[in-house]
UniProtKB/TrEMBL annotation:
Belongs to the leucine-binding protein family. It comes from Cytobacillus spartinae. This is Substrate-binding domain-containing protein. It comes from the Bacteria. The keyword Iron does not apply. PANTHER family: LEUCINE-SPECIFIC-BINDING PROTEIN, PERIPLASMIC BINDING PROTEIN OF ABC TRANSPORTER FOR NATURAL AMINO ACIDS. Coiled coil: none annotated.
Amino acid sequence: MKAFNRHFAFICLLIFMMVFTSACSSTEQTGNENSNEDKGKTEGTEEVENSEPVKIGLLVSQTGGLEAYGEQTLRGFELGLEYATDGTNEVAGRKIEVFIEDTQTKPEVAVQKATKLLEEDEVDFLVGSSSSGDTLAVLPLAEEYEKIMVVEPAVADSITGSEFNKYLFRTARNSSQDAVAGAAAIAGEGVKIATFAPDYSFGWDGIAAFKEAAEKLGAEIVHEEYADPAATDFTSNIQKVIDSDPDYLFVVWAGANSPWNQIADMKVQEKGIKISTGAPDIAALATMEPLVGMEGFTVYYHDLPSNEVNNWLVEEHKKRFDGAVPDLFTPGGMSAAIAIVEALKKTEGDTNADTLIETMEGMSFETPKGKMTFRPEDHQALQSLYAIKLEKKDGVPYPVPVLIRELTPEETAPPVRN
């Protein structure tokens, strides 16, 4: 009996061990299966995330006084994406989608459109805008939503100065860069200069920067005149300039309703006052016939830069737009697109703002104007400008900016104002 009990106990123990081992094996297998399933889900999720498009919201003036600038920026941006992605419109395995909104050159509209891009379209980047006023209104949204905003072509110093936040990077030059170039052309010891500009942030910042640069060179600013940017009659403004009896009139202006015809009609130069300004876009150059011989500066004219990127831009632009050459702000739009693509290449498609900020600070990239570099301190792109003289050229129906010399990024580096 005792032998039977021992034998029975042994059989029970053996059965228990077999059941326990089977259960453990089943649990282990199930665990592995769950682990593999979870891993598959994780890998699948990453794959979906990596295949999500990069979304870019482009704010431009498609109506209003700066409509031409908006069109130039838009053309340049689209060409820039094509150039930087070798025609794939894809970076780091992610397609690029562009959402375009018209700010109407009105700050309150710009805010509405930017909010729509951020909340409804869920863009990863903002780009714009044509107006400094529009841009300054939108900048706080970039910070609030923690999205990178590439500023192009707005130039007000306050954008990278008093209103700076870490989410903005500017490929456009700023007013101080213009000012350094403009002052170099005319300022000197004892030279008397009057200024003329539109009465908003673009004009105020431009003149403040020019005044600082000119006075450093020994010039005296004898009068500052600011006009309604929407005005069509500048007679009283120009007369005040004449009454101040300067040696030079330095003009900062943007937009279709330029003062050049009235400056000519009022015979400002015949009164011994020399005119100087930044050579504008082609449409405005066509109104500057009276200023042939003027020395000043320009941001861009299509045959001034000599580099591979600009050669591509000029050739492709002519092909696609009935032989038209790229205009003043076309290379800026292209530069903004190149900057975004180059940053995403470096982050391997990561659009996290902090990662992009770390990547873009100090980043250099090739543009139609040569190499640009985002200065770490204020995210302003250091870049070349061009000292020029307006001359007549056979077969061209407007005065042409002819290169005196290229002003290097080091020469035109503006003060850090933030």
